Amino acid sequence: MSVTFDRAAGFYDESRGLRPEVSELVADRVEGAVGPAARLLEIGVGTGRIALPLHRRGREIVGVDLSLPMLDRFRAKAAAAGLPPPTVVRADAGRLPFRDACVDAVLEVHVLHLVPDWPRALEEVRRVLVPGGMLLHAGGGAIERGSDSPRDQVMRRFDELAFAGDGPPRIVGASPRQVLDALVAMGGRVEELEPVGWEEPETYAEALRWVEERVFSSHWRLPDERWRSAAARVRAEVEAAHPDQDTPHPSRHTFKLTAIRF
Ligand code: SAM
């Protein structure tokens, strides 16, 4: 079963949102890669973190997601911004309800690590793309953060503790490497787009709060006791090492898209 985000609709944007200027830079990268006339499809569109700025620019973009609450949130954000309703469809990326060769580019941002049958989703991407079409892929499930990032440090330590030994796997779907290898085997040509980089302050207090509120999808599958004891241990370690957890630390963030052309 894919990991649906119904439970995350209320906190996704607060915990994973991008600043408006960063969203616009990401939309610039997408538009620069796909050109002005492309028909776009985003699989796992969620709350429209990537699609909403493109929709605002008047791009033709259809969003697919398994989670109705996430799609509802996308629609509500568009309405609040005075935009027309975005075109969204509740569907599985492994069974896209579209005919062959109907879009010029597919976007996939932080989705395939959640999809056990990710090869099938890639076949579907290939099927709906026109010949010469393109997939824009951002794998790994999270924005990259530098080693100066409190969130990165807290998450890494939590994962070391919680997923050690006989714990559940951290991801149920594909790693970025697996996705790229499979796409190359399907005949795709890979090109890294210019990354979007920015600095943003983070605090240890917030990083601990996200872990304790269990907002990250890899944590949802952990047995409660394993999650609770790892969270308590990380808190104790952070409190010992960083007595002032509310101090903001400027942290480097990088968002990377890879274009795969067929
Ligand atoms: N792409 C969006 C973004 O970057 O903000 C959302 C990413 S969120 C981490 C992953 C989304 O993929 C969730 O909304 C989840 O419901 C959706 N999802 C997971 N498995 C899916 C599948 N098999 N088909 C369609 N959507 C799926």
How would you sum up this structure, described in words?
This protein has helices at residues 12-16, 20-34, 51-56, 68-80, 118-128, 150-162, 176-185, 204-212, 217-220, 224-241; strands at residues 40-43, 61-65, 87-90, 103-109, 129-138, 144-145, 189-192, 196-202, 249-255, 258-261. It has 262 residues and is of the alpha/beta class. The chain has a domain at 6-144 and 172-201 and 252-261: Rossmann fold (3-Layer(aba) Sandwich), CATH 3.40.50.150. It has a seven-stranded mixed sheet, with helices on both faces. The longest helix is centred in the last third of the chain and has 18 residues, at 224-241. The protein starts with 11 loop residues before the first helix and ends with a strand. The chain binds S-adenosylmethionine. S-adenosylmethionine binds next to β2.
Main sheet: strand order: 3-2-1-4-5-10-7
Strand content: 15-25%
Hetero ligands = S-adenosylmethionine
Largest sheet: 7 strands, mixed
Q: Work out the helix count.
A: 10
CATH topological fold name of the domain at 6-144 and 172-201 and 252-261: Rossmann fold
CATH architecture of the domain at 6-144 and 172-201 and 252-261: 3-Layer(aba) Sandwich
The best one-word shape is: globular
Question: pLDDT below 50 for ≥5 consecutive residues: which ranges?
Answer: none
Can you count the beta strands?
Answer: 10
Q: Name the helix and strand elements from N-terminus to C-terminus, one letter apiece.
A: HHEHEHEEHEEHHEEHHHEE
The helical percent reads 25-40%
CATH superfamily of the domain at 6-144 and 172-201 and 252-261: Vaccinia Virus protein VP39
Rg over alpha carbons: 19 Å
Q: What is the highest CATH level, the class of the domain at 6-144 and 172-201 and 252-261?
A: Alpha Beta
- What is the distance, rounded to the nearest whole angstrom, between the alpha carbons of the first and last residues? 28 Å
Mean pLDDT: 95
